[in-house]
Structures are given as C-alpha cells and as structure tokens.
Amino acid sequence: MSDRTPQPKKHYRMLDIAEDTSQEEVARQYQRLLKLYQPENIGDADARAYAAQKLAQIEDAYAILGDPARRAIYDGKPLVVAADDQDTLFCANHPNTETLLRCNKCGKPICIKCAVQTPVGYRCTECIHQQQNVYFNAQGSDNFIALGVGFVVSAIAAPIVGLLLSGFGFFGLIIAFVAGSGAGSLLAQIIRRGVGRRRGRRLPLFALIGIISGVFVGSIGLFLFTGFFLLFDITTLLFTGLAIAAAYPQLR
Ligand SMILES: [Zn+2]
Ligand SMILES: [Zn+2]
User: Fold this and answer.
1) 100 CA to middle of ligand 2, Å?
2) pTM of the entire structure?
3) Domain range holding 99?
C-alpha cells in the first residue's frame, strides 16, 4: 500500500502549513491569516479584491482542515470518531430541534432553518452577519453623502460638459465616446473619497440617484439660462451613459 493519497494537498498550501500541523496550530494560523487579509483596512481596490479572493480560499481550506473529521477524510486517514461526536446535536437557537449540521465558522449546531448556505458551506446567521459587517463598513450617513456628492458634482459638471461637447458638433460625439468612462471613473473616485472609501450595500444606488438627479437638475438650470436642453442632446446622453456605466461598478 502506498502512502500517497489521491487528493492534492491544496488546502494545506492555502493555509501555509505542513500536513502534520496540530489542530490547535491550524486554528491559530487561520486566525492569523484572517487578520492579515481582512479587506477593511486595505485602501487599494486591486489589493482588496486580491485579499477577498485569498480570504475565500482560506475559508475553504479551513472548512476542511479546521474540522478533525473532515480533515481526516481529506487526508485519506481512517476516520476515528470520538464518542461525544456521536451524540445527537440540537440547534443552538431551537433547543428541541435535532440536527446534523454545524456552522462551519463557529462550530455551533444549527438546524436547517437557521443554516445559511454559502459557497464555503453552512453558516449560522450570526457568522453571516459578522462577515457582511466586515465587508460593508459604511456608516448610516454615507448613503446620503454619496447621494449629495454625486448630485452636486453632476449638477455642476453636466451643463459645462454638455455645452462644451455640443459646441464641437460631431467631434464632440467622439470626445464623449472617448472621455465618458474616464469622467465616470473620476466621479466614482470623488464619491468614494467623500465617504471615506467605506463600502455599503445600498451606497451605489444612492450615488446613482444623486448622479442622475444632478444631471437632470443641471440640465434644467442650463435650459432656464440658455434655452438649450441637454437631455435632448445625443452627445450629452452618450457621455452621461458611459460615465454612469463606468462609475457604478466602482462604487460597489
Ligand atoms: Zn457561526
Ligand atoms: Zn434552528
């Protein structure tokens, strides 16, 4: 019998540990890596995306290696079940409900009603909330700051950009096509800076409402002064459309 096991030992590499690492040390290493890749303090968007991806792989690996029974299966070792693991589990929230599930983050027994399925396995609602709170760190006022900044910048920029571009005729259309996304990215950066680079579930939506109503109000203002209505101008519409398409994903 060969002692080569069929599974690649990818999970050990993800946690950067040797295969004979003790269960306690696996848990300690997991906590260390969690802190290291926590996205909340990473300013750069690319680095944050990398950290989030890395965290998902670490969670994946720990879901297996953090659980002695699953780790034994992964290692291809005979499964030795401790006597107390065979006891019936009861849901932590519903003490009368028997269950076979545990939250794979905190280990708490949970019934199927309390379990939330995630890409890395079943989690209790408390752990899900904790995870989301780490990711979405916006404060209550941030939504309105995003809306306000989007509104003010768009209300000022729309008439200026619209007048300039339409003055160039067909050439303006080409400028709009080339510069629209860039302007949108710039606007997204201004809004993100305005909210201290925090992320919120509804923040992109609020920013979008601010931008669109800003363009609208700016256009009406320009119309009142000059009689020129931007929203009927194809160049302005193209520019605005491209700018919003570029800004929105960057605000998430
Ligand atoms: Zn949990
Ligand atoms: Zn339950």
Assistant:
1) 11
2) 0.54
3) 88-134
